[in-house]
Amino acid sequence: MMKIDIIGDVHGCLDELKQLFTKLGYEWKNGLPFHPDGRTPVFVGDITDRGPASVECIRFVCQLVLEEKTALYVPGNHCNKLYRFFLGNPVEETHGLETTADEYRSLSRREQKKVRKQFMTLVEESPLYHVLEEADAVIAHAGIRREDIGKNNKKVKTFVLYGDITGEKLPDGRPVRRDWAQHYDGDLWVVYGHTPVREPRFVHKTVNIDTGCVFGGELTAFRLPEEELVSVPSSMPLVEEKFRY
Question: Which residues form the Calcineurin-like phosphoesterase domain (predicted)?
Fold first, then answer.
């Protein structure tokens, strides 16, 4: 049985991420966390934007996933946008991307090149979502329908990155999203983030673990096979209106 620690949306909150690893029982070697029981951390995407240390989060996650190969990652919508920014595509520097872009531009040319290459490789070499049969779980940034597990087309990609969006907008500009988890009837856990919730939200065999660290909530991990939650408090100010439930 694979033992995993799935970590919610980090959004540049590196201090909280390190605290969470320590609380999960990881030991530190050369600045990187390793679990004595061989547990695997899995990042649910959105490791950058809005928080204070997005570039450091890129370096840290890339070391674990690409170099040490001790962790797994799936991209979120913010990761997808940052990837397009690094490609040189015209993307709006809003909704948090501006903080990552500012950090990036303050680096030397050499460091910029390195960070850009690391992050683009991370996204290119990671799947859209992870199906970890031996852990009884699917990790997908905004979730996935049971009938889409195993598929990888444009429609599935939009759902996994953005959730079940209707195309409509709420008065504050946020997209209207359907509550897809209510209809999930699969046997595997679907562990996701994307929409900040005050408490991890369990519906059928799904759990949203984005407890809004960057908005003053918590950074949360869901452990399997234990089905256990571990959280650390955020150091950021609370932005109440960002939480959906």
Answer: 2-197
